[in-house]
Amino acid sequence: MCATQKVEATGQVASPKELLALYRMMVTIRRTEEQLAKAYQQGLIHGACHTYVGEEAIAAGVCAHLRVDDAVFSTHRGHGHALAKGVPPREVIAELYGRVTGCSRGRGGSMHLFAPEVGLMGTSGIVGPSILQATGAGYSFMLLKTDRVGVAFFGDGAVNNGAFHEGLNLASIWKLPVLFVCENNQYATEIAFSYAAGNPNVGERGAAYGLPGLTIDGNDVLAVYAAAGEAIARARAGGGPTLLECRTYRTRAHAEGMRDAGYRTQEEVEQWKVQDPITRYRGHVQESGAADARALDAIDEEVAALVAEAADFAYNSPWPDPGTAHDFVYDMAAAMQPGAG
Ligand SMILES: Cc1ncc(C[n+]2csc(CCOP(=O)(O)OP(=O)(O)O)c2C)c(N)n1
Question: Tell me, which fold does domain 16-336 have in CATH?
């Protein structure tokens, strides 16, 4: 389906416990997204809702290597990144429902998920800035002489944006501890990447900036886990940034409620569904003997119960008090007044 580079899992072989944790995380993301898609149809979500269905292996495989004090910067399609970085499903769902118990206190919605306490430094409706923000985080981690890393998730739509050039070049010359993760799901809304890119191999672009660039199968969680593990270990050790292109596919529309026809064929969608990262990985785990179908079914059931409880929690949570509308709002003009604190 896509020409990908074979990644050697040097030192990054997952233990049986990690193997199951990867499965649990992917299923948690999938069930949460399915709940959100249903809630969107019920009118419970205010604002846009871009789901991550089909792309779960990337967030799960990358974030498995991150610590709470590492910083993730994400996109409009960021629910999976938030969950994998440690935001509980109830706080993600409540945020999309606009409730005060959401991770951004119900003020942000899908595209403004913030949870700095777990290193989720924000999802964003603007295409591209996550690249620069992660570069900035890497710069501060270097100045602070820590081994923390900054991670940018972004789509193929961001790689022809100037932020890509600026971020990768700066990270390269200063050897910043950053991982750039391009989630190439083949389309930016309805524009095929094969049309929009003079060189559609994003991984190869790393060479243009003097940093390692890889293209891998983003629907293979173990390939993601191996490649990200190596890149993150290198960044922590002062070896500088890496560009990781993960080839994947979103199997739902660009955003809930949008049409999903005219720019891709149903056959193409069906072909990619066969490559579903969770189904593939389930087969792999069973074949490897790490867990049998019963154990995996038990995880499915636990996750389904967790997400159902999270949805109830969100539904029954209060709205933010309108009297607090001005709280947490930064007023630049007021801050510049003489005597302002
Ligand atoms: C700077 C900027 N330009 C245009 C848009 C409009 N827009 C919203 S989503 C999107 C497509 C993004 O595609 P990609 O980065 O590949 O991510 P995907 O939706 O495929 O996950 C665009 C162009 C935007 N939000 N920001």
Answer: Rossmann fold (3.40.50)
